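Assess this one:
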Amino acid sequence: MLSRVKDGTAHEPPAFIAGPVRSGTTLLRWILDSHPNVVSRSEQNFLTPVVATFNREFLDAPVGEGFATQKLAMLREQQDLNTPPNEIARRFRRLHESFYHDLCTHCGKRRWADNTHSLLDYLIAALDVMYEQTPLYLIATRHGLDAVLSAQEKFGGDIRKRLEYWCAVVDLHSAFLEAHPGRCLRVKYEELVTDPQMTCDGIFSFLGEEPLGDIENAVFRADHGPYFGDHKIHRTREVHKLSVNRWQTVPPSHYRAAVDDCPQFNALMLRLGYPPV
């Protein structure tokens, strides 16, 4: 299903990158943005208030209370509005995607992908309602302790809170993926940096795009515009594995008690195919 803007230009269905912080989402965005048919620029913070307003005003339940079956029929009746609920959803969508269509026109591309860490709690389901179950989702995944410890290193905070955040997001996104397997692709950070070409070929195949050859050089040759996200990537000139299994260099005393106090963590690790810690 193509979407069209005022000038009649057709755009492919969008893609959304979702994942906990420090899971490789910035690298994934750069990879998509390197493709001649896809634009994926810095995380667009206007996404949060637009989708949050839609959720707050028109959706009955948060994602955690049955998002997998949430449909437009669950929109609350608006006694003071004569606009049908599905039209309300379309208008929010037109507002949101209009900025990206402008970006596509500016960059000479036909498709956009959004990378934002706000795709948690209710937002991913609200987006799916707004876009009438048409988007594709790339679910970024990384070893839990690597992601948690990297987030703590960059942002600080209590490691228990970081573990709880990681579990909440991973649980939500895994459930969404399992409910919509045809429109979601899990992208493991470890596979992405170990075999970038093969992994990226699979990503572009999932998106219905032609593969991009020499992916490692293509990513770091391109100008990806103003940035927000992983600051380290701007000092990087190649895809590397230096951040894989960094948790093994951290003394167990730093994380052991937090992991033991959060049994969901290892259950989710197994669910993702990682060995328990």
Notes: The two ends are 43 Å apart (CA to CA). Residues 85-107 form the longest helix (23 residues).
